[in-house]
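Limitations

Structures in this collection are predictions, not experimental determinations, and the ligand pose is part of the prediction. Treat each record accordingly. The example that follows, with zinc ion as the small molecule, is included so readers can see exactly what is and is not provided: the inputs are given verbatim, and the output is the predicted complex.
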Amino acid sequence: MSLERFINQAISSWMSTEGPDSDIVLSSRIRLARNLKQYRFPTLFEKDEAEAVINQVKKRLEQPGEIEDKHLELLLMDELQPLQKRVLMEKHLISPHLAENSTHGACLLSESEEISIMINEEDHIRIQCLYPGFQLLEALQMANTIDNWLEEEIDYAFNEKVGFLTSCPTNVGTGIRASVMMHLPGLVLTQQINRIIPAINQLGLVVRGIYGEGSEALGNIFQVSNQMTLGKSEEDIAEDLKSVVSQLISQERSAREALAKTSNIQLEDRVFRSYGTLLNCRIIETKEAARCLSDVRLGIDMGYIENVSENILNELMILTQPGFLQQYAGGPLRPQERDIRRATLIRERLQMESK
Amino acid sequence: MVCQECNQRPATLHFTKIVNGEKAEFQLCEKCAAEKGEMFMFNNGQNYSIHNLLAGLLNVQPAYQGNSQNAFQNEKVIQCPNCSMTYKQFIKVGRFGCAECYETFSEQLPPIFRRLHSGNETHNGKIPARIGGSIHLRKNIEDLKQKMKEFIANEEFEEAALTRDEIRKLEKELNSAHEEGE
Ligand SMILES: [Zn+2]
Ligand SMILES: [Zn+2]
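Predicted complex:
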């Protein structure tokens, strides 16, 4: 398969750069957790209950009604190859738990992949809407549409006092997790991020790196999300997150301006060194690739680099993960082989730009 | 070593999390560990070596406090009739077994919800249109009754009468919805 075709097939609509503020906000996501009243939760249900949940959703799918144009397709985890599941995971369409540990896990995926409904994950149903750029309220609206459509025929576990009943008490009430993926190299380079994260935590929001483990944030990509789900409306939760993210956007913009003013040549040097590394590397580890990709994206946003598309960061952060590399290679790869493949893929991808 | 959560206080608690066979180290101060305790517990409970310590944080009432009658009640086994999960098991795994667990543990849950959700224990968001139909009606009636009181207080009797008619209409709707449901 040619790289171009491989990439075209691999790209979901959320990875494009069409959304608002997409120079800083890479994507916006809303997740709603729902359960069916008559079955035990996935932590302890039996196989027949898991099957019954899938069948109910399948039945609902026979009358797509207002969401017909989304072309939802049912994928059963039991029928997918490990590598296929891994690729869905790397695209953030399914969770590791659904891929690896679920009983009769499944996923309803829309054609453009902006909607993914996980079935038999930690909850019976998890509706996810993933949009490019800063579009939290749009994502919430879509999630609500799907939720209403499912509820027309499916009996949710809901009670008046505590709202939607979820497997984990951290999700009870609205069952909502609103999150935004942000590229914050300015705040990292100016070391403001260490001060900002605790401040955001104080507001009841969680900030974490989305790639990498523990406290590191590979590619300077951070996810900001709500923590509490009970006591506030879905709209208020999304609005509160939105206003914090708006402030982060303006702080990131001023950090970039300050960098351009005080250390323009140092920054330009850093950007072009990273660009050079990506253009010429023969072996590259995830960590280094992420750092260079972040630098190049910053260089594009700040006008140092022209003729390279902005979505290079989003796209290559996804495509250079182990699952995708192995899918592109057509078979399993040892870690060292992956580093070689990763370098080749990045070089070829950048060459496509200069054509 | 400074706490990686607040970056202020010294980290006195060190623990490791195993993700896909790889170790990740955590350094926290006691305050942050206590604050984050239930989060770690619920999200990754089984993977934390600090697990037992944190499990204690979920027990809102200290086990040996209060009069003997309370102590007796604490020892009584609370078990969900639908999925047979006991309250003890729920505290241990951090997950409910089924929707009925919420009813079964309803006396124990509010303090847990308050800890996890910034002091909140009641839902204030979406009500599903179909199964929540009568809840919508009841909420509307409550709102209108409040409004009617305000009209009366402001001596706007005409408005108050209109609101009263509206309330009666909704109450009729609510009653017929109930009859259909039975
Ligand atoms: Zn701390
Ligand atoms: Zn139960």
